[in-house]
């Protein structure tokens, strides 16, 4: 039983890592606390639901369309909402407030069209596989596979390719990057596209397993944000580590106490980290002068 | 007619709620996302004191206010050391933990079942048992609470809050104890939020954790920001507007099931548009930074 719960925790860790790296891509590069990322998580699963169940299209096509549309939605959010604010030099908390508003609006548009009940994407009992006493469903295997390919892929991409270097340059010092001839706005746009697409894929894989309702986005977004802080803001491997830690920890909480306390434990961890190690596990301690711009 | 009194009761509750968040967010510049938690603690504390200890409405409320203010220190002291996004996320975390406690401590709060049969408040031995009477009752309480807030804001302490908000370093250089001022503002805002909590419990006579969620926190914050943070009248305008909005949607005959969502879509989009064209809100004096 403990092994099974730990395995579930690791599978959840894979999902958290995916969403957290998508969130980190956006947060580290633009410094915007993108709450609407949670809404994009929800929207991705619903687009897949729409084409797969209501239109009856094949799974792979529906997933492809949903991931593409979510990437596009991310780009539109940046182009129409954050970029104009950034051009005006608006404070980051103003972006946060408009992101909160956008989250509320998007989630309720979804609820208006699809209702508040849980929607099942893939009816019937899923085939399960057992390895060394651990039973996983087919979508859970896909979750692990997707994370195993995308997460290291993204981390290596950001570390070793030229585009990765450009993204890190904008993260470290947007003004200097601009002086070096990097088009900051297009970098931000692409970061939103990739971050949103990765997140949508994670949400679709969850929805294939357990279905989707309009409120799934907020807890996931908060877990991703906590994973980023625990791992280390500013890094791209940190949120992956943070995601796995939270996944396993939640598995243990289910084992030791009860599933009802999962959220409280996640945020307990956050508050402990904010107090004692706000730069996270992988992050670097910064002097206060560095953090004030 | 009862329908109009009902809307006015809700506006009187939300006006105090938004105004108390305004003290923290608008006047002190702390973008706190756990106000629904204090609202909930106030409602539960009043209810439990009335039902378990047999206190009247006013003594229960009078105890709930300092209790909520004290509990708010649990999050204020650690999180006020943080800046910007970190503070927002820490308060959001507190909101979720409090919701989780209200939901899971079944022995104390009855969890998801909620607490039914809250006694009717009475004033000088007269029970406040109709919607109209409750309207008079709640308007009196909220006018009192708003008057306290008004005096607080006009006082030297209110000026100190704005000084800390506008230039922390300068305030510290003048010998003001900035962390203490922030903590005090946060606790005062939390304590004031317990009053609408009590009013809500006394009016609905049934409470459950779903009235005190993250969504509720965002709603209260929207009322402050849309109305105008840092202005006394802003949150009152904002909450009147946001509470009356669904009723306006009802008048143009949108089915109830959709109207609830449409209301949220409207205020969500309003928040987005306002941040773009007028980040200070309708009556605003202060823009978050």
Describe the model.
The complex is a heterodimer of chains A (293) and B (289). Chain A has one domain (2-291): Orthogonal Bundle (ABC transporter involved in vitamin B12 uptake, BtuC). Helices cover 75% and strands 3% of the residues of chain A. Chain A is built from 12 helices and 2 strands; from the N terminus they run ααααββαααααααα. The mean pLDDT of chain A is 86. Chain B has 289 residues and is mainly alpha-helical. In chain B, strand 1 (122-123) and strand 2 (126-127) form a beta hairpin. Chain B is globular and about 55 Å long.
Give the overall average pLDDT of chain B: 85
Number of strands of chain B: 2
Q: Whole-number radius of gyration of chain B?
A: 18 Å
Assembly level:
heterodimer
Main sheet makeup of chain A: 2 strands, antiparallel
Helix % of chain A is over 70%
Please summarize the sheet with the most strands of chain B: 2 strands, antiparallel
Q: What is the distance, rounded to the nearest whole angstrom, between the alpha carbons of the first and last residues of chain A?
A: 50 Å
Number of domains of chain A: 1
Write down the CATH topology of chain A: ABC transporter involved in vitamin B12 uptake, BtuC
What is the domain tally of chain B?
1
Class inferred from helices and paired strands of chain A: mainly alpha
First and last CA, distance of chain B: 44 Å
Reading the helices and strands of chain B in chain order gives HHHHHEEHHHHHHH
Number of helices of chain B: 12
């Amino acid at each position: 039983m403990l092994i099974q719960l730990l395995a579930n925790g690791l599978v959840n860790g894979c999902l958290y890592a995916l969403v957290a790296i998508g969130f980190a891509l956006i947060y580290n590069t633009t410094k915007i606390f993108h709450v609407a990322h949670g809404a994009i998580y929800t929207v991705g699963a619903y687009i897949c639901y729409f084409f797969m169940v209501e239109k009856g299209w094949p799974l792979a096509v529906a997933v492809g369309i949903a991931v593409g549309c979510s990437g596009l939605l991310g780009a539109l959010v940046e182009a129409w909402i954050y970029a104009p604010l950034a051009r005006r030099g608006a404070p980051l908390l103003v972006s946060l407030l408009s992101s909160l508003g956008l989250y509320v609006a998007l989630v309720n548009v979804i609820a208006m069209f699809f209702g508040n009940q849980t929607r099942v994407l893939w009816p019937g009992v899923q085939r399960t596989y057992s390895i060394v006493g651990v039973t996983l469903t087919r979508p859970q295997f896909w979750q692990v596979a997707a994370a195993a390919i995308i997460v290291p892929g993204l981390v290596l991409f950001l570390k070793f390719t030229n585009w990765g270097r450009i993204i890190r340059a904008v993260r470290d010092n947007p003004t200097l990057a601009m002086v070096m001839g990097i088009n900051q706005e297009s970098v931000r746009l692409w970061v939103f596209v990739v971050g949103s697409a990765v997140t949508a894929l994670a949400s679709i894989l969850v929805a294939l397993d357990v279905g989707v309702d309009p409120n799934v986005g907020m807890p996931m977004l908060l877990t991703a944000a906590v994973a980023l802080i625990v791992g280390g803001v500013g890094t791209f491997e940190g949120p992956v580590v943070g995601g796995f830690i939270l996944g396993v920890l939640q598995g243990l909480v289910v084992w030791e106490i009860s599933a009802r306390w999962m959220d409280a434990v996640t945020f307990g961890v956050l508050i402990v980290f904010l107090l004692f190690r706000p730069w996270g596990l992988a992050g670097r301690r910064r002097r206060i002068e560095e953090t004030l711009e | 007619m009862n329908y109009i009194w009902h809307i006015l009761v809700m506006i009187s509750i939300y006006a105090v709620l938004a105004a108390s968040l305004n003290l923290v967010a608008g006047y002190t510049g702390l973008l706190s996302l756990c106000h629904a938690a204090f609202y909930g603690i106030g409602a539960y504390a009043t209810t439990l004191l009335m039902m378990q200890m047999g206190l009247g409405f006013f003594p229960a409320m009078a105890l709930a206010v300092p209790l909520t203010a004290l509990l708010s220190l649990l999050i204020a002291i650690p999180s006020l050391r943080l800046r910007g996004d970190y503070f927002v996320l820490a308060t959001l975390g507190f909101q979720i933990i409090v919701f989780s406690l209200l939901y899971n401590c079944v022995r104390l709060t009855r969890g998801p079942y909620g607490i039914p049969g809250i006694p009717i408040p009475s004033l000088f031995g007269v029970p406040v048992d109709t919607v109209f009477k409750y309207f008079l009752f709640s308007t009196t309480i909220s006018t009192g609470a708003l008057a306290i807030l008004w005096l607080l804001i006009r006082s030297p302490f209110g000026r100190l809050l704005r000084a800390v908000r506008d230039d922390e370093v300068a305030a510290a250089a003048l010998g003001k104890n900035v962390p203490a001022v922030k903590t005090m503002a946060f606790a005062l805002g939390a304590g004031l939020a317990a009053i609408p909590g009590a009013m809500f419990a006394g009016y609905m006579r049934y409470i459950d954790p779903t009235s005190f969620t993250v969504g509720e926190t965002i709603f209260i914050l929207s009322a402050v920001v849309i109305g105008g943070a840092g202005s006394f009248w802003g949150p009152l305008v904002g909450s009147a507007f946001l509470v009356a909005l669904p009723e306006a949607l009802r008048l143009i005959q949108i089915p109830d099931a959709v109207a609830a969502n449409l209301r949220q879509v409207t205020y969500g989009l309003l928040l987005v548009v306002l941040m773009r064209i007028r980040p200070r809100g309708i009556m605003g004096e202060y823009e978050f930074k």
